[in-house]
Specification:
The protein is globular, with a radius of gyration of 40 Å. It is an alpha+beta fold. Among the domains are: 206 residues, no CATH class; 34 residues, no CATH class. α7 crosses α10.
Length: 359
C-alpha cells in the first residue's frame, strides 16, 4: 500500500501549500469537515423514456425524490436502449441493463444502509473489506484491519477544538469523537454488486482479481481510496486513518483525492436528526453524572449523631460509642445525705443557745 498511499499524501501536501494560511487556521478533522461541507457529486442514470413513464418508473422517480439519493436521471429517446448508471464526472460505468421493480437497489443496499448508520452514529471513518471467497487471504486482511483499528482506537486523538472559534465551528451532526469500524462485504453478494463497483471507483482492476481489497469511507460517503490486500500494510492503514483524524488541510472538495458513493439519504435532514440524538445523549449523560455526584455526596456526608435513652436500664447510649450506665442506688444515697445535711444545718440555726452561768 505504501506506494499508493504516498501518492495520495504527496497530493495533499501540494494542496496544503496552495491553500496557505487558510489551512493553518482550521483545526476541524478532515472526516468531520467533509461531513459538514462536502456534498456528494451526483451519479448519472440513463433511462429510456418509455420506462420512466411506466408504473415502475414512476415509483422509482418517487423513491429518488423521497430518499434524497444523489442521482441525475437522463432520458434516452432510443427505443430498447439499455439503462446505465455512471459515476460522477463521466466516471466508470457502475451498472448496465434493463430496469425493473428492483431499480432502487442501484442506490440502496444492506451494506450501504449499515455504512450510513455508522457514519451518522459518529464513526470517524468506516473501513470496508471486500471478501474474495479465498478464506486464507480474507482472514489475513480481516485480522490485520481489525487489529490495527483496535490499536488506533486506543491511541489516536483529534485536534483540540475551540468552540468559540467561528472558523472551526462544527455543523449539525453526531458528537465529535474518534471512532473506527470495519464493515465486511462479500464479493459475490448479488445485492451489493453496484456498491462494490462504486467502492472500487476508478480502480476497476480490483474487481477483476480474485483477492480481497479494502477501502475507507468518510464524510458524506466519500471514498478516500481502495487498495488490494498486498498493499494494505500496517503503516498504510495508520497513515490513512490518522490523516482523516488530522486537521483539514484544504476546504475545496474538488482538489481532494477520492470519489463519492451513491447513497439514498438526505444528508441535511439526517445530520439534523443525528444532532438531536447527540443532544439527548449529552443531556442524559449530564443528568446521570449529576445523579451519581449527588449520591456520592450523600454517601460521604457525616452521619447525624443519635442519642438513645433506655428507660428500663436508666442508661444513655450514643451510636458508635460505649453505653455509660447510671446507677439508681447511688442516686438514692446521695439524696438521703443531702437531706440529712439540710436538717442538721437547720437545727444549728434555729436552736437557741444556752446562756453561760453567771452572765
Amino acid at each position: 500500500m505504501r506506494r499508493h498511499v504516498k501518492k495520495v499524501f504527496k497530493l495533499w501536501l501540494v494542496i496544503f501549500g496552495l491553500c496557505g494560511g487558510l489551512a493553518l487556521a482550521c483545526t476541524v478533522p478532515v472526516f468531520r469537515y467533509a461531513l459538514d461541507h462536502w456534498s456528494p457529486d451526483a451519479y448519472r442514470l440513463e433511462v429510456p423514456v418509455s420506462w420512466l413513464s411506466s408504473d415502475e418508473g414512476k415509483r422509482f422517480r418517487k423513491f429518488i425524490e423521497e430518499s434524497g439519493a444523489q442521482v441525475e436521471v437522463h432520458r434516452l429517446e432510443k427505443a430498447g436502449a439499455l439503462s446505465r448508471l455512471l459515476m460522477p464526472e463521466d466516471g466508470p460505468e457502475v451498472w448496465r441493463g434493463k430496469l425493473d421493480e428492483t431499480a432502487s437497489t442501484l442506490l440502496s443496499s444492506p451494506a450501504r444502509k449499515e455504512l450510513l448508520r455508522r457514519i451518522l452514529a459518529g464513526e470517524s471513518m468506516v473501513w470496508v473489506m471486500v471478501r474474495s471467497g479465498n478464506e486464507s487471504a480474507d482472514t489475513i486482511l480481516e485480522e490485520r484491519l481489525r487489529g490495527r483499528l483496535e490499536y488506533l482506537q486506543s491511541v489516536a486523538a483529534i485536534p483540540k477544538q475551540d468552540p468559540t472559534d467561528p472558523i472551526n465551528k462544527l455543523g449539525p451532526g453526531p458528537a465529535l469523537r474518534v471512532g473506527f469500524s470495519c464493515l465486511m462485504v462479500s464479493r459475490d453478494d448479488p445485492a451489493e454488486q453496484a456498491f462494490l463497483r462504486m467502492l472500487a471507483g476508478p480502480r476497476t482492476e480490483l474487481l477483476e482479481k480474485e483477492a480481497p481489497f479494502g477501502a475507507v469511507v468518510f464524510g458524506r460517503g466519500r471514498v478516500l481510496g481502495a487498495w488490494p490486500v498486498a498493499d494494505l500494510e500496517d503503516e498504510g492503514i495508520d497513515e490513512v486513518s490518522l490523516f482523516l483524524l488530522g486537521a483539514c488541510s484544504c476546504r475545496v472538495k474538488f482538489q481532494n483525492p477520492g470519489w463519492d458513493l451513491a447513497l439514498a439519504v438526505n444528508w441535511d435532514e439526517a445530520l439534523q436528526a443525528a444532532q438531536m440524538e447527540a443532544d439527548r445523549e449529552s443531556q442524559d449523560t449530564s443528568d446521570e453524572k449529576a445523579r451519581v455526584a449527588l449520591q456520592e455526596d450523600l454517601e460521604v456526608a457525616p452521619a447525624p449523631e443519635f442519642v438513645r435513652i433506655e428507660a428500663d436500664s436508666n442508661s444513655v447510649e450514643k451510636e458508635g460509642h460505649s453505653t455509660l450506665p447510671v446507677s439508681g442506688k447511688a442516686g438514692n444515697i446521695i439524696g438521703i445525705l443531702v437531706a440529712g445535711l439540710g436538717v442538721f444545718v437547720s437545727f444549728l440555726v434555729f436552736t437557741p443557745r444556752k446562756k453561760a452561768k453567771g452572765s
